[in-house]
């Protein structure tokens, strides 16, 4: 069962395609003889993003304006052969030397080296890591002229079909640009830490090993995502890539800079989406909502009195859970599936916040208020 941030667990079947394909987080091992290619308007207090340019730009103009702020991230690890770690990408966040990349790029690193467009390299300090969103902040003490921030755009305004571009270092090829469209929004990306990353952007822009941590850009040149993973049966790009949205970046990064970590809110239930078969078994009209199967002891859900499914019923050889609360809405937002709950938690909620759940119990709807607690560490 997928542990998606509701709990310890959520979303049975939310990413069933993963049984066929594998999500690859895109940082390759560094080639032994790879040569290094030499070829803010962000208000941390209000956490608002500002589009860098008012008009759409050509791909060439986007590349010219943003490439100086995109960096190559070389990593060494003691647990790798010959101490060689890998290559990733990143982009300059501010003039203080903060650089954003993926957590999986720098995890377990003994040394991180950042290389700028002109070939100059600097050792980097890891400032903060959030494995639950795969975001990391590193910092370099570099020449001020090299620190050209790539401004954050607003991922909440993206539309499916909108053109976007990616810049990074695929296979160590520094400063490579690809383009494509937004294929879908609000995806749920499974991770190795048993929680899934919500609200992820899907794109068909080619991203490959080495692109991890690089920017996904809108046509105004603003960062709308961090290129993070591909879905593939072979490990090679097949037209399905994923990026962490800038809306998540804007929420997480200032706290990583200030505290070195980000603490996520948690409900404490596991369950499954209501599909047509389950709706028929439960005798509910519409196949929408999230059925609670398990309530974790001493969790926010437990303290608020939410009820899990204590029984199962067999129908046509299939066991279905019954008797649990069905979440229909959170804070007035309709819940069609688990993703809606997770996206709301990610976008709008913090530890200590109240959240009002509209639940269906014994054929009656009722509102239950829970107080969100810190998500337990499962590592």
Task: Provide the descriptors you would attach to this structure in a database record.
379 residues; Thrombin, subunit H; Pdz3 Domain; 6-stranded antiparallel β-barrel; 6 helices; elongated; disordered N terminus
Explain this structure to me?
This protein has 379 residues and is mainly β. It folds into two domains: 248 residues, Thrombin, subunit H, CATH 2.40.10; 110 residues, Pdz3 Domain, CATH 2.30.42. It is built from six helices and 25 strands. The strands form six sheets. The protein has a six-stranded antiparallel barrel. The chain has a six-stranded antiparallel β-barrel with strand order 4-5-6-9-8-7. Strand 5 and strand 6 form a beta hairpin. The longest helix is centred in the middle third of the chain and has 14 residues. The protein is elongated. The N terminus is likely disordered.
